[in-house]
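Per reviewer request, we include the raw input and output of the structure prediction for the construct analysed in the revised manuscript.
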Amino acid sequence: MNGLKAECDIRLGRGIPLVFLHGWGGDARSFGGAMEYFSRRGRTCMTFSFPPFGGTDMPPEDWNLRDYSAFTLALLDKCAFDKVIFIGHSFGGRVAIDIASGEDKERAYALALVAAAGVRPRRGLRYALRRMAFKRDKRLGRDVTKYYSPDWLALPERMRGVFSRIVSEDLTERLNDISCPTALFWGDGDRETPPYMCGIMARRIRGAEAIRLKGGHFAYAEDHVTFVTSLAELIEKWTLRLT
């Protein structure tokens, strides 16, 4: 897709398709439990691996968030899926926000943002001191590897610019442009996208509902039963608009 080979898992059934978007470093298996839960109940479900994860090809070095959104929409077009319900975790939530607040927002029938990225983190004194130490060590020619995130270090060198461009983009103002039904699922112990980010999203997205999960950044898997049963209830409510 878009010149790239994509790893996809598509299970046909009934209803508006549920499209699961994994987080950075995940793949098409990240939402395996939820895919199994909903497909067994007859729902049309889809997930795939974002480039370059899982079995999907490496993207060009100049990719940004828009390219990941275009890649997602191209896959939906290939499957003849028009409106869908996006369920996006972390980076996948960032992609869902980008689509649902942009020129293709009509493609998002509803959103479930799961520990979604996109809000600029709060920076305190500890961050400022760490940044000063990084600049000092770099100026002195010391090893600065310890200052980089594990996600950045795990990437091939050609992907590091892509990652940096994506995580530096603040989508806070664009949350106001989301008009479809939205739910926010958040782990009460999440340190990657702390719960205050959920509060910011809840205030900016009109009518958004917040559901607390027990766990950290992957609470959707840690508190699986609460996640899938709550999501199922919301999907039932959202799709009643069709009847």
